[in-house]
Amino acid sequence: MFMEQQPMGIAIEQSINSRYSYWVREALDDLPYNFTITDPSIPGHPIVFASRELLKMSGYSREEVIGKNGRIFQGAKSNRRSVMEIKQAIREERSIQITLLNYQKNGTPFWILFHMFPVFSKEDGRVIHFVGVQVPVTPKPRRSGSEFSRIQVNLCDNAAFLGFCRREVCSDTVAELSRIPNLDLAAEDTEFNDTACKVSDLEKQGANSAMGSILSMLTHYSQLTGKLVSEKRCCSSYMSGVGASLNTSLGRIKQSFVLTDPHKTDIPIVYASDAFLEMTGYARHEVLGRNCRFLSGEETDLSTQLQVTNSMQTGKACTVCILNYRKDRSPFWNCLYISPVRNASGKQTAYFVEVQMNVNNYNEKQQQNLRPEMMQLSVVAAVKVAVRTSGMIATTSN
Amino acid sequence: MLRIKRVPTILSNYQKDEAEEGGGAARGCGRNCLRNCCLPGSKLPLYAFPKAEKVESCDKNGIPFAFLDSLLLGEVILKSFDCYLLLQWEDRMERGLFRYDVTACETKVIPGEHGFIAQLNEGRHLKKRPTEFQVDKVLQAFDENKFNFTKVGQEEVLFQFEPSEDGEVQFYPNAPIDVDNSPSVVAINVSPIEYGHVLLIPRILKHLPQRIDHESLLLALNMAREAGSPYFRVGYNSLGAFATINHLHFQAYYLAVPFPLEKAAAKKITDFNNGVEIYEILNYPVRGLVFEGGNSLKDLSDSVADTCICLQDHNIPYNVLISESGKRVFVLPQCYAEKQALGEVSAELLDTQVNPAVWEISGHMVLKRKEDYEGASEKKAWRLLEEVSLSEERFQEVMAIIFETISCAAVEKMSPEDKQDAEEVGGVNSDHHAAIVSGKQECLVQL
Lengths: 398, 447
Fold this sequence. Notes:
heterodimer; B: 12-stranded mixed sheet; globular
């Protein structure tokens, strides 16, 4: 049950091309903003689009940026905590606005207000892309006293520097930029971290209007392909019974599995992975809320089915091989591994995870050193960690 | 001699009180352990990691592991190593080898700026008579009569962990054990703090005492790097810094949130000519150093090892955290045990019975009492850790000693009795000295 992986270059191209109609790149380039579009479903979360303005501001060429992770813009003095907060926002699939020290290709650092927001698929509520807007800002330190005047001198240079950064930059000014005194002193002072960098309301507004423009552009061009996007996750069937953050974490597990809730009547499925849907041929809304027995059919051995139910009622792990049927009624042998999973407070079994393995399909050669059950154990491990982690993060809303 | 009383943590199902141990390790035990009574002819899986900076290959000569990379299981299983370790761990859980179910331990991130993590773990601490530990001697000779990891059952070992011959990952599910060269192994910690909590025991049959040497630290860094997830951290506690067992071991586990220590700011102190950069930790209750960079993993490892050896030789207890898949290494000297022995720790802190080892110092507070868990706050965690730290003056002294030692090309200065101890336990390697790049020793003024 392995997901096919396209060669990277094609996947990156397709990330934009498959969702938006042809002229979207040109339209995005016409916008006067510095921004990237990244695709979290491709390993490495690479940049799939970088606006013309951003390339000018940063000094990179398109080829040097497409396919790379967004961290190429950061450097030694970029505040570690800010970077971690951005990573956290990506994990939780929400937007974030934070100041950050970025670096041009030639190594010159400059402060930005980084505004990142997710773009959701209207159809299934999944995150398609993240858009990262970079608004250059003039840092306003909170420090007072003698240090201020030292820093102010640099800020004047910074402002002049930023003057070149705004909209109408053209390629020869990149050479001019390198003449401007290095901002290292302001950046080197490690007390001078991002949390001390205040941003004006005007700059924040700039970020918000950039977001609005980009989003409406993307929405427009997605209409033409029929794969509508939206700024909000609006698909209710996506929000299965496990809550937003856990949903997100589980979405990263690429194997076929479901979570069932033993506390609800008839132990329904509350989460189903994409791989499960692919294997069984059902759509998500057709499986959520139902007990797994719908996968059984005419030839399914009843006692095996009962074993599954029994395991869930007694809270014990078990392995069974059961004959299941896809939506098109084609049968397949399903080696199920079922295990209880506790919630983050640890007090009770929150879910049962059922990991499917289609036995017709597995490649003998690939499995020679690991028994299939071992593979399924790794899914259980990943699910346990996901459930535990999402429960730990108290502030995430469920 | 300074001593404290504490209940030792149980790391193996075969770890018993000294009293129960009795004499003689060679009593044939029938437990399937790793000593001469049971080991000959035994086989354990072997995970051979590539030493060179090479990307894991795909499907060459039927190496079975490459396909696991396509699985990308969640946030912690990103490479074969993670997958294999965790599924083996889950397997041992199913087999009931752990003293308690760690997923049954309530855990939360304490609200606040730093994100300390609190766990209520009543099962980890035994309701047993506390044992005496000598806390003023960081280097102690290996004692055959005490518990050591060759006494663990083979079922507690997950796999042997060795460098691969040809620079690529190799996996052997049933490899014989090379008794002469002694493999390094990864075993479960039967009192886990988190899911996937394991022990790395370098050269297990050689009975190395708990002290860092260059080769062992490099092995630990390689393991951190081999794991795909930056949420896999490797830690070390010296004697006197709450190591329980005087048999060389590192610990590791997965925790899918950042540690407060990892988020702390740092001020650069210097560069070395081998590319290693050293920083001082700022805005954190425990003072320490961070090592990053290096022209190779070995360069980074050697600089850290030189520092640890220096601390050991000067009898300063310390903890080490390897983070970000081996890219950042924290070294934090501490003095909590000494204070405890001298009666300088408040009753309030002592009552929590928290032993501040590397995980607690990193910000993962494992609490024994419900009231401590319910009332856990950032302020309390901060206050506890402040007690663990060396004072500013003492830390500056220690830094001076460290820098003098590791940047000096001459043989490390050691006091006569330390030299003797060092010789007892296997000699000192003095050919790993990196020089400070001249002219680059920066000393930024702190505002």
